[in-house]
Hints:
Layout: H1 5-10, E1 16-17, H2 35-43, E2 50-57, E3 59-60, E4 72-73, H3 77-97, E5 103-111, H4 119-132, E6 134-145, H5 152-160, E7 165-171, H6 175-181, H7 187-199, E8 204-211, H8 218-230, E9 235-240, H9 262-278, E10 282-284, E11 288-290, H10 295-301, E12 306-308, E13 311-313, E14 319-323, E15 328-330, E16 334-338, H11 342-350, E17 356-361, H12 364-379, E18 381-383, H13 384-391, H14 399-409, E19 413-416, E20 419-422, H15 426-437, E21 448-449
Amino acid sequence: MSAKQPVRNSGIFDQKVSRYLCYPSVEHFVPEVGGAQHEAWLRAIPSGGRIGIYIHVPFCEKLCWFCSCRTQAVRSPKIVADYVGSLCREIRRIAELLPAGVEIGRIHWGGGSPLILSPEDMARLGRTTRSSLAVAADAEFTVEIDARRVVPETIEALIGQGMTRSTLFVQDFDPRVQRAIGRLQSLDDTGRAVRLLRKGGVGSIGIDMLYGLPLQGCVQVLETANAILSVEPDRVALFGYAHVPWMAKRQNMINEAQLPGTEERLTQYGIAAEYFVRAGYDPVGIDHFVKPEDAMARAAREGRLRRRHLAYTDDSLDAVIGIGASAISSFRQGFLQNERQTVAYSARIGAERLAIQRGWAFSLEDKVRGRAIEMLMCGFRVDLAALRREFGDFASILDAGLATARERFGEAVALEGETFRIVRDGPILARLIARCLDARNAAEGRYSGAI
């Protein structure tokens, strides 16, 4: 099965499919799972365990039309400062519930744009984190960077708080494409940001780019890939633009007639992926390309790669605690999501409560299916022997889905002893094959295209 044959024969890549950053996906979360579970699950983290925290800053100076993240435009420093106050109160409240000895191994500031915080607010947030929680000496601290807002003082403030990694967002460098998506960002701005980060000692820099954008063709994709490599990032994420205007109303500003079709998206992905591999980057999972010496590349080679809400990771954390409006927490028992609206979030935190709005408690079936889907998304295989060791005979619930996948995808998959494997086109087929194992895939209309 070639990459394009299924498109011509059955339109398989035209399906709407989850990105499987978690299982079950967020749209299945229910309000019945909330504050009581949050407190219980926090207290159940093992003493001496290692966790991560994700802090969400849902603000930008101006909304980009293509973006489907939960964020809002704001220009008032007071609104941002008040929100940081709510973050600090939530951090202290969570710290009160954690068992003694729990250590923070990962910190991630995401958005929106964390760079909308003033240096003073960055310092306040950093101080509260360190004074309330036991941050490990070797903790990895990642900040999402808007290259257009970078000035030396901002980078100095972030490094002063311990930033060790950063991710920059590029999309595409062609001016026509940028105007079509409502975001102007030059290569000069991006290069300057990378140089300031390197000069400050940030050891790992990632860059995200998009394909499938309006007015974007293969020429623009290759030119953007080449420009990205000119600043020598350690990691590159190659994401397909998700056009979901029913979820992100700002995407109605995008002219749908200018969007490339499915076969064009396949071609764009293929040429960019090949370009990064030829440049010496290791392909990791369905959409990452990393330098061979990078920790993520090592994790992929050693079978330790994991997939969380923030995409791929090499950690083995006991939990990731989401802090801030709409932030998602991941526990061994399930998922929880904070109030999505900043006003509602801040009101609940201000009332001396935690801010959980909805969540999901795993059944045993969820755990089996979720782990199998994660295996597919990370390594393009399902280790049935490992699943049986962990879950016993209950792992047999996968049998029907795997049989469906073998029937539907033919020679692109194989069952070799105790291992189900995608034998070719793994990055573009993994989501579709994972769907065969997904018992909760009825919400197809809420997802983006499969490529």
